[in-house]
Amino acid sequence: MASGEQPNRHCSVVVIEGAGVLIEGPSGAGKTSLALGLIDTAKARGMRAVLVSDDQALLEERQGRLFARAPEAIAGRAEIRGYGIVELANVDECAIALVARLVEDERIERMPEARATTLMGVEVAAIDLPERHEQQATRIVLAWLKGSETGLTGDS
Description:
This protein has 156 residues and is of the alpha+beta class. The chain has helices at 31-44, 134-147, and strands spanning 8-9, 12-16, 19-24, 49-53, 57-62, 65-69, 77-80, 84-87, 93-103, 115-119, 122-130.
């Protein structure tokens, strides 16, 4: 583990067609909204998509790959702000293919270069997405997954 890095991370994680997406950002940035929006949109496009964890995930490096799973107490649950806790279908864990960081609008580059971040000693592709703009962020993540080596297909 990298110095100071904790295996329990404040984030939401979904898996779409086998590709794990770790969504991070400050409280209220729209992590859960994006996670649920990604699941709904991917399913509407005929893709397999499911929650791994909402609000926090336990990260682990295995054989040079980054894996995420939900802490047992919150597995299969998500908090919808303004409504409460809901039960959702979930999977135990997934390998992370993309870290999606929710940031302030002014930090979003118009035509960003490919980049990566390192978590738990593992380098993972990373993108910045606009906070609280679920629809646009969903389009960006699905386009990234479709264009990456994950081999996803579907309409953009």
